[in-house]
Amino acid sequence: MLGMVVTTQPTVGDLLRKWRQHRRLSQLDLSIQADISTRHLSFVETGRSAPSRDMVMHLAEQLDLPLRERNQMLMAAGYAPVYQERALDTAPMAVIRDAVRQVLLGHEPYPAIAVDRQWNLVDGNAALPLMLAEVDPALLEQPANALRISLHPDGMAPRIANLGEWRGHLLGRLRRQVEHTADLGLSELLEELLGYPCADEVPLVEHPGPGDVVVPLRLCHESGELAFFSTVTTFGTPLDVTVAELAIEAFFPANQHTTEILRTG
Prior knowledge:
- The chain is α+β, with helices and mostly antiparallel strands.
- 44% of the residues lie in helices and 10% in strands.
- It has helices spanning 12-22, 27-34, 38-46, 53-62, 67-76, 94-107, 128-132, 146-151, 163-181, 184-194, 241-244, 256-264; strands at 112-115, 121-124, 217-219, 226-233, 247-253.
- The relative contact order is 0.12.
- The mean pLDDT is 92.
- InterPro entries: Cro/C1-type_HTH, Lambda_DNA-bd_dom_sf, MLTR_LBD.
């Protein structure tokens, strides 16, 4: 039929070549790293050889692919996905939900959030409203995106005293995530965030100020400026796509004034 658009799914060889090049590896580099012959690797990439399920898993491991992309490579090779992807609100994930909630509650009275791969808010603790004061309620509607909330002119941005520095920090993290995952959704999010206005200079490279050991978040507050630094926690042995993509960001007070304000409510 005229006008019909035919789309073809990538083969396992296509995906293998794409990720090898994305990781900036030659066939020789990957063959040495994976302890296989360059000839065999070339045959897999060109479709002249069908890799076994174990070989697909082995090459995905050597390429450090996220679990979601490992499943895609397995399906392209004709095998069933190995890693399940269960919604966080399902019964089998109760133990994960409880673990996340325990970490969030245990961090009070300091703010903490849980986000998925796309930086959508999954959960937060009781200290979070202090950070979200004056944020447009529309930005908090599900799916509420933590990076959009942070940098949008109707979000936290007007209250961030060091917006250029914090913006550069967040965009740098997102760029590294895009580089690692090649996720189209994250790439689109990055383009969106880059379009947000910012009157402050945004450093291309994070330069520490006098006495700085981390990039602080400096937030304007009625009691005076609050300062935070953050840590990120992930599950160490994930075997589920959803679990692998969860991250908990916990904010700590960076000075005594912030500690006192948070502890007194």
